[in-house]
## 1
Amino acid sequence: MLRSLNHKTPPLLFNFNFNNLTSFHSRLKITQAFSSAVSPPSKAIIYESHGQPDAVTKLVDIPGVKVKENDVCVKMLAAPINPSDINRIQGVYPVRPEPPAVGGYEGVGEVHSVGTAVTAFSPGDWVIPSPPSFGTWQTYIVKDQNVWHKVNKGVPMEYAATITVNPLTALLMLEDCVTLNSAGDAIVQNGATSMVGQCVIQLAKSRGIHNINIIRDRPGVDEVKERLKDLGADEVFTESELEVKNVKSLLGGIPEPALGFNCVGGNSASLVLKFLRQGGTMVTYGGMSKKPVTVSTSAFIFKELSLRGFWLQNWLSTDKAQEGREMIDRLLGLVHEGKLKYKMELTPFTDFNTALDKALGKLGSQPKQVIKF
């Protein structure tokens, strides 16, 4: 069960007080309608103010919501805890719902019921919010049919729940940032053990693109290297192993990379830049070290390196929603064929506190936490 908001009372199931949370009442548009077209009552992880997720989140009961003619009521099956979810609760993410709000941004569910005007979905279908949508950490969600995208029920639910934010980021960065040749090109990345990093390795390998990977020094590093090579990594180096004058001497027969991915910043980003060939591009999509990206003047002038950023939400906010859905279907096809995999841990919704602690790094390095409802 979830911890209480102020940690002064034992963990227990909270009842939602609508007299005290009128703004939340209006935000969710909860209707006490005496009609058959009402969703079942739901349990949700909410936060009433921004702050550290383990301090401000709590579990509440929410009454049923009216299912309007164009709505789809979805029983959630699984939803991950992503770093961006944590940042939204903290109030530091650029786009976030105003509290009080339900946490979570992606996930997969099963259609429970549909409005009278809905013909594209039927009870039992598996659907994901596409583009992702706020409020997936709850047992039942009612939203307009345009929010939902039907997916193949043949894939494990944890993959359907996590396919949008990380795998789609990996695929878009590989295909949209720089034109790579299937034979003879290479990429370099840090954060290779992340979900995006694991996807980049496999997607690059499937296209015949060499991949060089940088990981932080850690206990059991040989096992980590072996696991990444099993996914298709050509080379895996720790940051300390790259403390040499010429990192490119370590490449052997691998060509100098045309494209680099950075999700760490600081020295790790500088190591990515050192690998890039003349005219290469580094794409930054995260900053886990919270340190800036620094580039030498000579790299800009004499190597003509390019730096750019990538933010999935910005890409999805354009007119590319349908293209994004088609790419998601491609990725789920690879999952179904066993050609795309990454490490995750399914945790029951009742153990949300433990999953959150793991996602916050309180229990050391952990796989992606996925809540099973």
Note: The chain is about 30% helix and 20% strand.
## 2
Amino acid sequence: MVDSGDSVSIDMEKICLSGKEYHVPTGRGSVSVIVYGDQDKPALITYPDLALNHMSCFQGLFFWPEAASLLLHNFCIYHISPPGHELGAGPICPNAPVLSVDDLADQILEVLNFFGLGAVMCMGVTAGAYILTLFAMKYRERVLGLILISPLCKAPSWSEWFYNKVMSNLLFYYGMCGLLKEVLLQRYFSKEVRGTAEIPESDIVQACRRLLDERQSTNVFQFLQAINKRPDITDGLKRLRCRTLIFVGDSSPFHSEALHMTSKLDRRYSALVEVQACGSMVTEEQPHAMLIPMEYFFMGYGLHRPCQFSDSPRSPLSPSCISPELLSPESMGLKLKPIKTRVSLDV
């Protein structure tokens, strides 16, 4: 279809949006994986934030045609759900052992081995970003690059620990109640999209609220327990040798965490994109802010958009080599007012 000047011509038949679900057995329980695209292509795995899955955490990004064309042109997508977070999941047995963050990272290795995958690209949001970063530290040869959205790397601060304890008590005594959902929505989204007494909440918040209704409280409780006991992995960040691209909304409760993590990464291999007027879940709230940085990031791996999109006003790329100095909003030739880009990416 062809639309206005800000739209893109796209053949939706070439983009496979129908995924296949696999239940992968691991030594720490079964894991749900939704696979999109051609499994002969390089793999990109995703891991969502607390109480979310691929539908509530990545749908905005992957269902946006321009991002879908970039990602599915280059990758087969493997959406990994935390235990019991997949669509239609039943409650985890209360007597089942609570998995640690190390257990969750080790599950990812078993998923990769199940599908016969080698080194993969990783994309995670907040708690999921922590799990994937830990995975990259433990199994460096299995990670090509990291795309982290509002990531964590330190142990919980006192304020986060307090909020997590409040959520744990709500989950234990009241389940997925209205107050718990409000706390989670504040974790995910900026107040601009959550709405006020005068302004209704946005469609993405309403959709997320409905999807949260489907989560089993015992399953969310177990993932929260693991994240609340996570160790500080700051010291291991310098040893990462894969490229890392970090996005964070300036209204995210984890904004300072992302800045801290960026300061500890090797500047030769990392870049930071701060998105204004956005919460933690940039993938849903402002997915358009991720497109251009991801395009330049992937060019460091020799990947690019399909040629039919090269005349898009949001995609001024060609497969030629681009120097780091060009990774600025002005040099992109675009009005990227919502985005502040701090870049030290070695392309």
Note: The longest helix spans residues 158-174.
## 3
Amino acid sequence: MNSISDPPFDEAYKSLFDKLISNSEEINGVKNEVMVECELPLINLKVLEESDPVAREECKSNIARASQQWGFFQVINHGISSEILKRLMCEQEKLFRKPFHNKTKEDEFFNFSAGSYRWGSPTATCITQLSWSEAFHIPLTDILYSNSSPNSLSSTMEQFATTVSTLGQTLADILAEKMGHKSTFFKKNCLSNTCYLRLNRYPPCPIASEIHGLMPHTDSDFLTILYQDQVGGLQLVKDMKWIAVKPNPDALIINIGDLFQAWSNGVYKSVEHRVVTNPKVERFSMAYFLCPSNDTVIESCIEPSVYRKFSFQEYKKQVRDDVQMLGSKIGLPRFLTYDATA
């Protein structure tokens, strides 16, 4: 029985559940495979403050290497206090406890832009395309430049957004530097009015073995910085296999997005990942997305380029069109040059 705070998944996707029951071949076995749990490469960012230039360069090289080999890594001593993270997680839980009908009126109850609250998968045509989750996808401008009177949620989000933005710029600059490009590209194009914070909740799922919390995808940004609780559920593809990421309470998870893969000409990898559901326990996470403005042109910093030039707006439109038509994202393969696909 759903609580008044849970989205009405059963009601909204009844036809998909009915189809699942009547057609046993549709069962996707999300959790039926044997899953290896691993720890992502762990990088101590405190080393970047050391006076030893060799140690600093080694730290930067480790960041670049993990971005090439894994597309994911985790960082400790990242500059965001555990107090802020714990407080934000607490405020986030309280936010998602609100009645569902209040959450759908986010501009009225929470002073977020209309459309910030999202749940499920509106375009899903089969159970494999359904994401059993709800989220507030909030422009940083709603957090940093709100005209409303501050409350505990907004002030905590503002503290987090300010510090995580600095971390995002630092990591992007390091990755650009290790490609031989000490540029101001990210500081010029990835501003607070183009980046986002996303608060996620994955409710307990009665048929967790059949439904994703978040279906397999890559991120359509430069970098994603994630903080998650200790429930677990994040999985990624490594060496053609799905592996489970072991939660680390002291670390933030960083993953490369599509735009960085295109910008680096495929050197840094935007890796497919997903979230699996849990039959008994809800899961919370929060993510920061380092994004450029819509008119920013993404082009490779190395020639010959694997990908053709495209604007961020063009990329997002192609993703939306594909999801609408096919139920899932295609992403970067749509933007390969002719030579690369010959």
Note: The chain is about 35% helix and 20% strand.
